[in-house]
Each structure stands twice: as C-alpha cells, then as structure tokens.
Specification:
The complex is a heterodimer of chains A (118) and B (221). Chain A is an all-alpha fold and 118 residues long. Chain A has a domain of 39 residues. Chain A is built from 2 helices and no strands. Chain B has one domain: Arp2/3 complex 21 kDa subunit ARPC3 (Orthogonal Bundle), CATH 1.10.1760. Helices cover 71% and strands 4% of the residues of chain B. The longest helix of chain B is centred in the last third of the chain and has 33 residues. Classes of the chains: A mainly alpha (118), B mainly alpha (221).
C-alpha cells in the first residue's frame, strides 16, 4: 500500500515535472512567435508608411502640375483672344459700313433732288 | 498706358468726357464721305496695335500708334482713336469705362498734333517723309505721356514725379514707335502715296509723272 502511494506520488511528480518541462519551451516558443508577429507588423507598417509617403509625394507633384496649369489657363483667359480681336475689327468695319450707307443715302437723295430741280 | 477706373476723380473724368465729346462732334461733322474707309482701316490698326507686344529686357511694351494714325488721318484721327479705345475698353478690358474720355484725350490730342506737324514739315522725297514720320511717331508717344502726367496732376499727383517715371518708361516705346511709323510711311509712300498726299498735284515727283491730274481724270472717266 505504501509502495503504491509512493508510486502515485512519483508519477504525479513526474507528470508535473513533465508538464513544467513542456510548459517552458511552449511558453518561450509562444513569446518568440509573439515577437515575430510584432516585428512583422512593424515591418508591414513601415512599408505602408513608405508607400504612403511615396504616393503623397506623387499626388502633391500632380497637384502642383494642375495648379500651374490652372494659373496658365487663367492668364490665357484674361488675355484677349482671336475672338475678341476679330469681333472688334468686325465692329469697326460694321459701324463705318452703316455710317457710309446712311451717308450714301443722303447723298443720293440730294442728287435726286438736284436732278429733279435741274 | 491706359488709365483705369478709379484713378481719376469724377470732376476730371467728367470734364475730359465733355472735352473729348466736343472734339469728337466737331471731327464727325468734318469727316468726308471719301475718308470713311481710311478712318475704318486706321481704327482697326489702332485697335489691334495695342496687342502687339515687343519684348524688351525683362518686360514687354506694346505699340500705341497715335503718331501714325495722326499722320494718315489728320484731325479726323480723333474719331478713330475714340472708337478704337472704346472697343479696347469693352473687349480687352484695357482702361476703365469712366476713364474713357481721359484716355481718348490722352491719345487723340497727340494724334491731331502729329497730323498737323507731319503736314507742316514733311518734304516731298521718300527720305524726308520717312524721317519726319519717325520723329512724329516718337513725339506722339511722348506727348501722350505728358498728357497722362497732366491728367494725373489734375487728380492730385505730383506732376514732375509722375512725368519723370512715365517718360523714362515710355522712351523705348517711343523709339520703337518711331521706327514703325517711319517704315510704314516709307512703304505707303512707295505703294500708295495718295494716302499721304490728299491732293495729288502736290504729291511726290514720281507720282506726278505717272499720274498727272489730266491723266488721272482720264483714268477716272
């Protein structure tokens, strides 16, 4: 009976010891995987950051292009274009054409009156 | 070289409107039927000239052409300049609407003076005509600058300060204008002298030879 008890104790002790021994490497391996996880996450984050920075730079460059283009367009819009130039010449010729027409009608009337009188 | 809105006080603006309106009315009555096309063409030329920018160092200047318009149109140049300035004001936003009278005085009076001066001192040879036109063109710009300074003086600026700055800024314009006027007149003298000499008998020698009054009458009939 005593022997049996002793055996039981021994086996429990052995089991506990085994469990302990199992726990240590398990624990450490767990920690290692955790660390690995963190470092890989860190890596991913830095990669993402670099990518984001790159994209930001590209976007700001593109925005600069667009802004410059807008300014150029604004400047071009403020300058008189072909439409204004030809429109102005058309106005001038039109005004003088109408004036000449009116004057010609007056002259014709006068000459008609003169011929009637004559 | 265009006065903008708000630079001149109302009194100066209204007075200049009245004066330029009076000169315009007188010249409209004087305008002959035969001159309509000539005035129209010169109005177009004056209207466009301010768009021709000549690069000069860091900046660029543009032609004004009061001298040339005056040479070719005489006193009726005021009509051409007023109409040209009005259209420039509405289409190109050069100068303000309230300053239109002042602007037309500033350009029109030198043009009338230049026309008179050119008639007085032009010779009959090509060289004389070209040189006279060049000098008259330059004088036209300078006169315009002086009238500008006078108008600004009337609106409360110091005359000599404004005049000095404006004259120095427009010296290159006057120089270029002189060259342009000289070349234009020498070209017209050779190609179409009747634009410069209204009555042909007093025209250039070679023109008299080819087209004596008698021959011209024959051609007309």
């Amino acid at each position: 009976m005593n022997n049996c008890l002793f055996n039981l104790k021994k086996t429990t002790f052995l089991v506990v010891l085994l469990l302990c021994m199992l726990y240590v490497p398990l624990h450490f391996s767990n920690a290692e995987t955790n660390q690995n996880k963190i470092s890989s996450e860190k890596n991913a984050c830095t990669k993402l950051l670099v990518e984001l920075k790159k994209q930001n730079k590209m976007l700001s460059r593109d925005l600069g292009h667009i802004k410059r283009e807008l300014l150029r367009l604004k400047y071009e819009m403020s300058r008189p274009g072909l439409r204004e130039i030809f429109g102005g010449i058309g106005y001038i010729l039109g005004i003088f054409g109408v004036a000449a027409y009116i004057k010609a009608r007056q002259l014709e009337k006068q000459s008609n009156q003169n011929s009637v009188k004559g | 070289m265009h006065i903008s809105d708000g630079v001149l006080p109302p009194s100066v603006a209204i007075t200049s409107f009245a004066v330029s309106g009076a000169i315009l009315a007188i010249n409209l009555r004087k305008l002959k039927y035969e001159d309509y096309p000539k005035v129209a063409v010169m109005t177009s030329a004056f209207f466009i000239a301010s768009l021709i920018h000549v690069p000069l160092g860091p900046t660029s200047v543009h032609l004004l052409l009061p001298g040339l318009v005056g040479i070719l149109l005489g006193s009726t140049s005021f009509i051409a300049i007023t109409l040209g300035l009005t259209l420039q004001c509405f289409l190109f936003q050069f100068g303000g609407i309230t300053a239109l009278g002042a602007n037309s005085l500033m350009m029109g009076l030198p043009a009338i003076f230049c026309g008179w001066l050119f008639k007085k001192i032009k010779g009959t040879s090509l060289k004389q005509n070209a040189i006279t036109a060049a000098i008259t063109g330059a004088i036209g710009v300078m006169l315009a600058v002086i009238i500008l300074a006078l108008l600004l003086y009337l609106s409360g600026e110091e005359f000599w300060g404004v005049a000095k700055v404006a004259v120095i800024a427009h010296l290159p314009v006057a120089f270029i204008e002189g060259i342009v006027s000289g070349f234009t007149v020498s070209f017209l003298y050779r190609v179409k002298p009747e634009l410069l000499f209204n009555n042909i008998p007093n025209g250039p020698a070679h023109f008299q030879e080819t087209c004596t009054p008698h021959a011209c009458q024959d051609q007309k009939t």
